[in-house]
Amino acid sequence: MRYCCTVLSVSDISKARSFYESIFGLEVCQDYGRNILFSCGLALQQDFDWLIGVPKEKVHKKSNNVEIAFEEYDFDGFLQKLKGNPSIAFLDEVVEHDWGQRVIRFYDLDGHLIEVGEEMKMVIERFISNGMTLCRIWKGDSITSILV
């Protein structure tokens, strides 16, 4: 068995496709009209109720129990791109997690929660540029590197 993809229910396949192509630069590798698959493994499905055989009112928006996660090298540049897009509805402001990674969460056009986080390599580079140094410690029978 192998994992194939994640399928999101969308109300307008053309608008959703444009959103994911313009915001994230995703590329379509398969297009079946009301279903498309991006090369990264994310799929969009218009008429999701038809696909899974449930009434339309059973397909809910903004459940906030799943998020689509991306990492971005140029996090600050990406934030500027988002702030210039009036169709973006933010969950909250930028959050910095305990491990130092900054993330922003917002909704796509159909209410799916998206997280874009700062690429972890950039977090480490930011720590080093702010004066932290790499330290190696013994942990069990091996050496672990940490920033201090």
Q: What's the gist of this structure?
A:
This protein has 148 residues and is of the alpha+beta class. Helix content is 24%, strand content 35%.
Characterize the structure shown.
With 148 residues, the chain is α+β, with helices and mostly antiparallel strands. Helices cover 24% and strands 35% of the residues. The chain has four helices and eleven strands; from the N terminus they run βαβββαβαββββαββ. Strands 5, 6, 7, 8 and 9 form a five-stranded mixed sheet that branches. The radius of gyration is 19 Å and the shape is elongated. The mean pLDDT is 90.
Q: How many helices? A: 4
The helicity comes to: 10-25%
| Shape field | elongated
Beta-strand percentage? 35-45%
Radius of gyration: 19 Å
- Which structural class is indicated by helix and strand composition? alpha+beta
- Which whole number gives the mean pLDDT? 90
What is the H-and-E element order?
EHEEEHEHEEEEHEE
Number of strand elements: 11
The largest pleated sheet is described as:
5 strands, mixed
Low-confidence stretches: none
Q: Report the span from N to C terminus.
A: 43 Å
